[in-house]
What does this fold into?
Amino acid sequence: MTAAPGEDRIEVGIVRRGDRVVRLDITARRPIGIGRLAQGKSGETIVALVPRLFALCASAQGVAAAQALAAARGISLGPAIVAAQASAVLAERMIELLRGTVLLLGGGGSPALTHQLRDLMIAARPSNPAAPLDDDAIACIAQRLEALGLTPDSFADVAACRRWLGSDALLAELHRPLVAEAEFGAAAVDPLTAADDVILGERLIALGPSFAVRPDLAGRVPETGAFARNAHHPVVAAFGSGLFGRLLARLIEIAATPEQLRAVRHGDADAAAVVQSMRLDDGIGLAAVECARGRLYHLMALDAEGAIRQFEILAPTEWNFHPGGPLARALVGTKLQASEADRRRVERLVAAFDPCVGFDVRFREVADA
It folds into this structure.
């Protein structure tokens, strides 16, 4: 989740001894400097600037900055504002998850899928950013998803999911071969949750950018994203924590979006499941937003004059692509050949973890590492 995704990449080094993965070397070229850019500026300036800096998840970034500023000032945003923010994040999350899935499965080469995705993006675009999506827009989104074969009933239980997989929906056809990969990359999930927010915020205050680029919680590196949010869904649990289960978690979340948007619009949902903030100390606010790639944090600290003294962004990618994090846990110990087929399997798994930048996968022997 960077301001210039086209210029930044993650390199995933798969270090093998024999045919078994013994370590992952993960390096990233990512810009650091937004915090310095914000120092001394007004909160309003940065809240307006942040969404323009990010090509991906711009709404989530803007909401996180606005929530962190309000928390730093000790202001509680009204329910209508929070509902509009949650609606924007949910709609953006759905689009990002679907776009990532289409690209991962090679569906980007299908004109039909490309057109359907474009129509969905248009339907999800808010006509009034200060309000949640209205009922007509939500109905349009539901129709577009149904045209893709994605309805909540598609994943109501394991039997329904298997019927969906056997259907002639193009997305089902693209997913069907990956059922055989259900075990590939399987690992126990340790989700990053709201219970981690306070200690995480304290670490961000104390350590700043060095924590934001390599976070851990007393040695723990939890996972965040669609799979972490849905790991206990019965259908996801039935297919396990490997590649297919991760893709399935995305589909379940995408299909559930219209109902979530309706609930937010009509005040029947807890917006805190999407957008949260808290005041950590005088003049210090922390916001957490559940965006497509996971739990995004913004920390904003104000000086005595109300200008920004410290601004930190902790992106979901830093957890999932930590050298000791979820991707590493999914691959270390796995048997892999230095073949094009296995390289492609790893690339699909990396894409399922959904880094916010491009990536390269390289195989190395331990003697060369």
Notes: The chain has 16 helices and seven strands. The radius of gyration is 20 Å.
